């Protein structure tokens, strides 16, 4: 059966400019919300997707200590069990108090659920959120429907498209 939806109707395509603006908006929401006079002790990016937003947020909030947690949950668009491939510095993390953990998006919530078990007092923030994962995220900017696939600029390239009326 042919799919009734055009590609652009199934996907939410995010440009570099938009991820920059949305990551800045997330930073401004997080500003002054840390436990220590409003300051955050460190930012931890969930690799790989959280790295670009985390860099932008670290710059906006003037946080110089940035670490990573490597979590793998998907092979392309297929979900698998979330596993930690590399943990951040244990002494710095403690139970997560004062740590801002950033990802590009929350979908099923499995990635953040795993990170929350490890660092229960950290603050979890994502740029985008789908409804199923919302309970796992403390702060986000934009919600999209569960059946929308978000395409990030690092996974895309500019290419020619047929005019709309040229399609059959
Ligand atoms: O809420 P969930 O259902 O767990 O999905 C969200 C996670 O999935 C993607 O990462 P992925 O594991 O594909 O790795 P990547 O960031 O390296 O692309 C995305 O960047 C989030 O980290
Ligand atoms: O919608 C998505 N887009 C990109 N990566 C993802 N990983 C889980 N969900 C998504
Ligand atoms: Mg990821």
Automatic annotation (TrEMBL):
Residues that, per the record, bind 5-phospho-alpha-D-ribose 1-diphosphate: 48-49, 103-111
Residue numbers binding GMP: 107-111, 149-150
UniProt binding sites for guanine: 107, 150
Function: Purine salvage pathway enzyme that catalyzes the transfer of the ribosyl-5-phosphate group from 5-phospho-alpha-D-ribose 1-diphosphate (PRPP) to the N9 position of the 6-oxopurines guanine and xanthine to form the corresponding ribonucleotides GMP (guanosine 5'-monophosphate) and XMP (xanthosine 5'-monophosphate), with the release of PPi. To a lesser extent, also acts on hypoxanthine.
Binding-site list for Mg(2+): 104
Biological classification of the source: Bacteria, Pseudomonadati, Pseudomonadota, Alphaproteobacteria, Rhodobacterales
Catalytic activity reported: GMP + diphosphate = guanine + 5-phospho-alpha-D-ribose 1-diphosphate; IMP + diphosphate = hypoxanthine + 5-phospho-alpha-D-ribose 1-diphosphate; XMP + diphosphate = xanthine + 5-phospho-alpha-D-ribose 1-diphosphate
Binding residue positions for xanthine: 107, 150
Subcellular location: Cell membrane
Organism: Celeribacter marinus
Keyword Protein biosynthesis appears in the UniProt entry: no
Protein name: Xanthine-guanine phosphoribosyltransferase
Organism domain of life: Bacteria
Stored InterPro entries: PRTase-like (IPR029057), PRTase_dom (IPR000836), Xanthine_Guanine_PRibTrfase (IPR023747)
Membrane topology: Peripheral membrane protein
Pfam families: Pribosyltran
Recorded name of the encoding gene: gpt
């Amino acid at each position: 059966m042919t799919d009734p939806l055009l590609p652009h109707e199934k996907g939410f395509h995010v440009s570099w400019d938009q991820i920059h603006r949305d990551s800045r908006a997330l930073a401004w929401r997080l500003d002054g919300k840390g436990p220590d006079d409003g300051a955050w002790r460190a930012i931890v990016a969930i690799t790989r997707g959280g790295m670009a937003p985390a860099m932008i947020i670290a710059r906006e909030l003037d946080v110089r200590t940035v670490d990573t947690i490597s979590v793998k949950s998907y092979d392309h668009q297929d979900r698998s069990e979330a596993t930690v491939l590399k943990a951040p510095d244990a002494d710095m993390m403690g139970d997560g108090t004062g740590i801002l953990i950033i990802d590009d998006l929350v979908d099923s919530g499995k990635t953040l659920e795993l990170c929350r078990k490890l660092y229960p007092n950290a603050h979890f923030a994502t740029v985008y959120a789908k409804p199923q994962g919302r309970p796992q995220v403390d702060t986000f900017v934009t919600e999209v429907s569960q059946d929308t696939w978000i395409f990030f600029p690092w996974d895309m390239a500019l290419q020619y498209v047929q005019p709309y009326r040229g399609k059959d």
